Amino acid sequence: MSVSVHDSFAELPAVDWDTLTVGANIYSTSGFAGVREEALPPEAHARYLLARDSDGTPVAGLEVYSFSTAPHDLYTPGELLGEVISAERTAHLNTRPISIAAGWSEFRGQVPGHVNASAEQRESALSRLGAEALRLAGQAGSSVLAYCYLPLETARELAKAHASDGAVLLLHNVETAMPIGLWADFDDYAAWLPPGRRQRVRRELRRFRESGRVVTELPLPEVVKEIAPLSSALMQKYGHTAYDEERAVATFDRQSRFLGDESSVLLCKENGKAVGFLLRYRQHDTLYARAAGFDYSVPNADDYYNLMFYHQIAAGVGRSVSSIHLGINTYEAKMRRGAQPTPLYSVFVGVDRPLEAPDSAVRAYNRTHATDFVTKYDKYVVGGINTDDWLLD
To answer: One Pfam match, by short name (predicted)?
Structure first.
């Protein structure tokens, strides 16, 4: 098994990379790799790793990003590890660069692999990729290599690959998805909901329809400038003051260049004026709800819930896709309307020295965070939360 390292997206053999993303999520594709690289802070850099079998066939791929400081609060190593390592080690990590593998900025990581690779080939590839990622992290002066927001199976694979390095596997966050493929139409969906929620959902749908607003579906490249002010308005409302209209245009322009063919925008208009939108990407049988925005100068007609959920269900999207990926956060609002949770994990590896997190502290952390999430949100999830595979042992 050999590993090639590519220093930029331009050097990345996109055809080889994309052979690994069959069945993977949209954020693993070469298109999003291009988006991430172009969005990197000036002092950061990316590396793309490809593990190949003896005949040159790609087996698995890995992105490795190095930052002088964490690119987002949710990636701050001391905050993520502070409950399982010493205060001294936490303080050290917070002053050092960080290397993040398996993607960043989408809060969903994955190590794409060839669908026909055997378990032995996959294990060998991840072992070689992990060793190379650790070497690059050391080269960048990082004190920790973090694989973030992974499904449990992948997290376990990486923890095994780094077992000799003292890898730490933690329950990091929870993502949600709408199982839209379960329902033939809106009535079917409403019947699936608990009785107490149906009236509210029907009322929100009716309010939107009575508003006279019209929803059309368009490719992202056609509406970048139209949706930018709506996106900026939402970000400003929630305290992201630096995200102005100019920055929104740049963000959507970047995504339209790399991902225009996979994009679709649900654009909501009232009297010809855009008042809301939802940007989605499609990969295989999944839609990924990427961004939304609204005009807060007009009356709210439950636009968010209708664009995110009801319009798509009523339009029969579930006949061609199985789920709508909704990402992390705003759990109550999503789960009240049918979204289902899936835990995400991170694997941390000390670069300059082991992290030395006691097994008992790691187990207690994972159990406590799973229990806390279930206690807070179980009542909102249709069917409740089954934590049998949430790493509670």
So the answer is: FemAB_like
